[in-house]
Design a protein that fits this description.
Mean pLDDT: 89
Distance between the termini: 62 Å
Order of helices and strands: HH
Structural class: mainly alpha
Helix content: 55-70%
Number of helices: 2
């Protein structure tokens, strides 16, 4: 797999998303070509990558939600049990 170039745009740069796509493009194509080379067809390999990306994004969102909940619980006043 090819090396992925480092970002040169700052986090607030409006083109950072596009630059990330450009940086990942050849690695993505290499991944799909590797899957095709062992017998998967191109469409199913792409759908698999899409599903993996979607599941990963859902996991990140769930982790962010859990972190926010835990932070809120840490800041909440404790009740005394009587």
């Amino acid at each position: 797999m090819r090396d992925i170039p480092r970002p040169f745009a700052t986090d607030d740069n409006l083109e950072r998303h596009i630059r990330c796509q450009e940086a990942l493009q050849f690695a993505f194509l290499d991944l799909i070509a590797a899957a095709v080379a062992v017998g998967w067809n191109e469409r199913e390999a792409i759908v698999a990558v899409l599903d993996l990306a979607d599941n990963h994004m859902l996991a990140l969102a769930a982790n962010d939600g859990m972190s926010a909940l835990l932070d809120a619980l840490k800041k909440a006043p404790r009740r005394s049990s009587q």
